[in-house]
Write a structure and sequence with these properties.
With 713 residues, the chain is an alpha+beta fold. Helices cover 34% and strands 25% of the residues. It contains 21 helices and 26 strands. Helix 17 runs parallel beside helix 18, helix 18 packs across helix 19 and helix 20 runs antiparallel to helix 21. The N terminus is likely disordered.
Length: 713
């Protein structure tokens, strides 16, 4: 993540000194509704992202995976902005069901509200607040009113700042506790310290960052560290055998849930200690005692020396792993590595390289001032004397602390500098085979510690699995779309007296390929149009669709009448032995005489818009679906098709929506055709499929064929 502005950032120019706008607004909201933490995000102008500007009540590290998020991200603040509404998550189960990525990183009982900070014309950012798990599962009406009005007021202040061209910067996070009440009124601080010193068990006071502010002698004795060695440092950093993510996780659980929690830990070589954490909004009081119930537990070797500082926190690692499992295409992987992983490890640029047929291929890059410095990798042989080729060929990562070190081992780099000063070349290995390499570049010389190398290698393993899956998806996607494009007409023929246009939208589940088809067949002196739908959204359905479309063309060319075309196609489908069925609608067109003859096999009825704007559903007589009965007949119907009419042929994907009655859906399609029918035919087609094309999830494919006689043929 990009590093946020530090606490020394000045307040907005129009706000009084010492009264930072965002911090005051946030703390006022928290006080009004009793929240124990929260954050304000700002949206940079013209960027589809939210950046955390200030956080209160908890360390920012708790929210590290979400310091900078895209508006499309599956998290509450982004959803609040997208939908311009308050988003409420009522507890741990609700979070796990709706936002599993957050629940994996923060598996604690807490409630959360997210709201947009927006005026009618512009979104300035968002706010989230959290409550302990003891909060009721629903927000009260008062809390909703308080939060909504507070965000509206903040949006107006940000709008005024924008109108004056005055930026509102990030502000210092609010973690400092005020003076403790109660104890200081009844006991002097010295007497309070004496009282705690007399207790037979250890007592420590931790701030919200986990730093020790006070420890009594008993705590020092139990932990085996002088009080002076504890003060000012995090407990798990100053006590080597507590430097384990499990113990830090308990501290995080206590702060976020505001519930007392406990754990036991082994002090080498064989003494077990019990820790009880009592949280509040100002920090944690820890009680330490010898664990009485633990016996016959195998001791482990004590850890020697301080563990290195974590390059990536557990929460970030979990978030990255979860996000990588959600990537679909190669560009998804490139975007995620660029937006989340590279910033988290301090890298300023990256290149993702694939390996295929003995050569490197550039899959994507980010952060390089001159893209040509990356493109030189494209097509490079794996035998080339370059670090990228070597790490792929040998599967061993390479780290270069400085330009001198890199150029000493690879002199060719003298001629192609990229402007960076340190590099990590990480092989991407999935299922025991190399799929590429990830190159991380750093602006300053950097010494890669053993810990850092291990972390980067582990992240490379996660990236490799995601990339391998994405490469397979992209190949499948290209194959599916290539096959679909080959089976559908590349363009519609130009016919005298008739204007035509078509649209095809694949379902975006599975292979994104289906059995919907359409065609316009010139067969002088008349023409024919056909639309149909073979069951399924796979290669089998698409292949059968191609056979049916070819058969209809052949039967049309030899001069069969519409009913006979349908009978012949039905017998062909049965003779092929396929278990799939198909619907079909076939028309013999005669625009010169303003008529059409139609035959239907279980297909949705076409819509006819007359020049006066009225729309009629042509509920034609017909026969069964193709592929059921080899003796089926298909009666024909002649309909008027005069100049200025628009005939809409479509497949059921355009009208079938879960929970919507099919007749209502046809009526709605007819209303939209009636309203748009006078516009150019291309615009009419876009209007009819527009809402479906914009849908995030399409469960069925759609074909649409529009015909408009113009009478001058």
């Amino acid at each position: 993540m990009p590093e946020q502005t530090s606490g020394q950032a000045p307040a907005a120019a129009w706000a009084p000194v010492g009264r930072p706008l965002l911090s005051l607004a946030l703390t006022a909201m928290m006080d009004a509704v009793g929240a124990h933490s929260g954050a304000v995000y700002l949206r940079p102008e013209d960027e589809p992202v939210l950046e955390m500007a200030v956080m209160a009540g908890l360390p920012r590290s708790f929210a590290a995976p979400w310091e900078r998020v895209g508006l499309s991200a599956p998290i509450p603040v982004a959803e609040a902005v997208r939908e311009r509404r308050l988003v409420w998550v009522g507890g741990q189960e609700d979070m796990a069901r709706r936002y599993p990525r957050i629940a994996v990183v923060l598996p604690y009982p807490f409630a959360l509200a997210a709201l947009p900070v927006a005026t009618a014309s512009r979104v300035y950012g968002a706010v989230f607040l959290t409550w302990p798990g003891s909060h009721p599962s629903e927000l009260s009406d008062r809390e909703r009113r308080e939060l909504t009005s507070a965000c509206e007021r903040l949006a107006l202040r940000l709008a005024r700042a924008a109108a004056r061209n005055r930026a509102v910067p990030a502000e210092a996070d609010l973690l400092e506790a005020g003076p403790a009440g109660g104890v200081s009124d009844t006991l002097g601080s010295l007497e309070a310290a004496r009282m705690v010193a007399r207790l037979p068990y250890g007592m420590c006071s931790l701030d919200l960052h986990g730093r020790v502010g006070f420890a009594n002698a008993a705590a020092s004795e139990l932990l085996g560290v002088p009080v002076s060695g504890l003060l000012g440092s995090q407990l798990w950093a100053s006590v080597p055998w507590l430097n384990d993510p499990m113990y830090e996780e308990r501290y995080r659980a206590a702060l976020i849930s505001q519930d007392a929690t406990s754990f036991v830990a082994l002090r080498p070589p064989s003494e077990w200690l019990s820790f009880r954490l009592y949280p509040s909004t100002t920090g944690i009081s820890a009680r330490i005692s010898r664990a009485r119930a633990v016996s016959e537990m195998r001791s482990s070797d004590p850890r020697s020396g301080d563990a290195p500082t974590r390059l990536v926190s557990m929460s970030q690692a979990l978030s990255m792993a979860g996000a990588l499992t959600e990537t679909v295409s190669v560009q998804d992987v490139v975007g995620l590595v660029a937006e989340e992983i590279a910033p988290a490890v301090g890298s300023q640029a990256l290149a993702l390289l694939g390996a295929r047929a003995g050569r490197l291929h550039v899959l994507g890059h980010h952060g390089y001032p001159d893209p040509r410095t990356v493109q030189r990798f494209d097509g490079m042989a794996l035998s080339a004397p370059t670090p990228g080729a070597h790490v792929v060929a040998h599967g061993v990562p390479a780290f270069f602390d400085s330009r001198e070190q890199l150029e000493r081992l690879y002199p060719a780099r003298h001629t192609s500098p990229d402007g960076f000063a340190a590099w990590a070349y990480l092989p991407l290995i999935a299922s025991g085979r190399p799929v590429g390499a990830c190159v991380l570049a750093y602006a300053e010389p950097r010494r890669f510690s053993t810990h850092e190398r291990a972390v980067l290698a582990s992240l490379a393993g996660l990236i490799a699995q995601a990339l391998d899956r994405a490469l397979l998806y992209d190949v499948k996607h290209q194959l599916a779309h290539g096959l679909q494009a080959a089976l559908l007409p590349p363009s519609l023929p130009s016919l005298a007296g008739l204007e035509a246009t078509a649209r095809y939208l694949p379902a975006n589940r599975g292979m994104e390929i289906g059995g919907d088809f359409y065609d316009l067949v010139p067969s002088p002196p008349l023409a024919a149009a056909v639309i149909g739908d073979v069951q399924g959204h796979n290669v089998t359905a698409a292949g059968l669709m191609g056979q049916l479309r070819t058969a209809v063309r052949a039967y049309t060319t030899v001069g069969q009448e519409p009913g006979e075309v349908m009978r012949s196609t039905n017998r062909l489908l049965i003779d092929l032995g396929s278990e799939l069925l198909a619907s079909c609608l076939y028309l013999r067109l005669d625009p010169a005489h303003g008529r059409a003859v139609m035959a239907r096999a279980g297909h949705p009825p076409p819509l006819l818009r007359r020049p006066d704007g009225r729309v009629r559903v042509l509920d034609l007589a017909g026969g069964p679906l193709l592929g059921i009965d080899d003796s089926a007949t298909y009666p024909t119907t002649e309909v008027e098709l005069s100049a200025g009419c628009v005939l809409a042929l479509y497949t059921d994907g355009l009208i079938e929506t879960p929970g919507v009655d099919i007749e209502d859906a046809v009526a709605d399609l007819g209303r939209r055709l009636g309203a748009a029918g006078d516009r150019p035919l291309e615009e009419v087609a876009d209007e009819l499929v527009g809402h479906y094309a914009a849908a995030e999830e399409r469960i069925d494919d759609v074909a649409l064929l529009l015909l408009r006689p113009h009478g001058d043929g």
